[in-house]
Amino acid sequence: MIIDVNAYLGHYAFRRLRHNTPDALLPLMDSKGIDRAWVSSASAITYRNAQSGNEELFAAVKDHRDRFLPFAVVNPAYAGWKDDLKTCCDDFGIRGLRLYPKWHGYALSDPCCEELIAAATERGLPISIPLRVEDYRQRSWLVDVPDIPLAEAVELVRKHPTARFVFLNGAGYGGTPLGTKAGQLPANYWIEISRLSALMANEIGQLLAQLGPDRLLFGTGMPLKYVDPVLLKLELLDVAEEVKEKLRWRNAAGLLGEKR
User: Fold this and answer.
1) Per-residue pLDDT tens digits for 164-195
2) How far, in Å, CA of 79 to CA of 196, rounded?
3) What's the burial of 16, exposed, middle or buried (CB within 10 Å: 0-12/13-18/19+)?
4) Contact 9, 21 (CB under 8 A)
5) What is the pTM of this model?
6) pLDDT digits (tens, 9 = 90+) for 57-104
7) How far apart are alpha carbons 169 and 132 in whole angstroms?
8) Facing residues of 123 across strands?
9) Rounded Cα gap, residues 145 and 29, in angstroms
10) What is the phi/psi pair of residue 166, to 5°?
11) Domain 3-255 falls in which CATH fold?
12) Where are the domains of the chain?
């Protein structure tokens, strides 16, 4: 069993994506042994109204809810986000949120974002935050969107100890309080491994040693990124098979309250 916590459907504004529909992504998942995926709308990253992307996502996955677990992109700086969140929860049955503060023009510390985090926490929704969408060196000339600094993630975790955060597409955690128990942060965050190394610096191994095996999650970034490198990282990781099973799916299932 493998659960991918970092996947997308829809269109990305600045380059063509393959495997970005259910009919195309499911065969890719089957070929790589990925059973389920947390998916959000790639289109919602750049739509002025992110809710339109959520509507497209729900229509795409409604016949495949055994494979796709929808995560809604909600922009708290956009008027009507509270209604959007209610619709996504009550009508679409979303399993969590995905936030893009740098793309949507707000800070994680802004009151509107704190209000959204409180509302999501009250509903029991995990909040996933991609620290980057794509490599800054590959950005379009039309946009200048930086990565989310790890220092901002540290403050977010510290300020909202009852929320549950999943950080996607990040690296370099070992040099911050996020990467060690000595950082004295609440254990309310999980780290997805797609950008982490399993050899050389072996950041995955370091985080397993510092945070324990329950805090890391398998993710690929498909179809924005290739799947095989992350599968290879797990294969090369020098840990017990039961630890790999936690990374492959057990930790993700537990986050959503599913049987592990």
Assistant:
1) 999 999 999 998 999 998 778 999 999 999 99
2) 36
3) exposed
4) yes
5) 0.96
6) 999 999 999 999 999 999 999 999 999 999 999 999 999 999 999 999
7) 6
8) none
9) 30
10) -125, 115
11) TIM Barrel (3.20.20)
12) 3-255
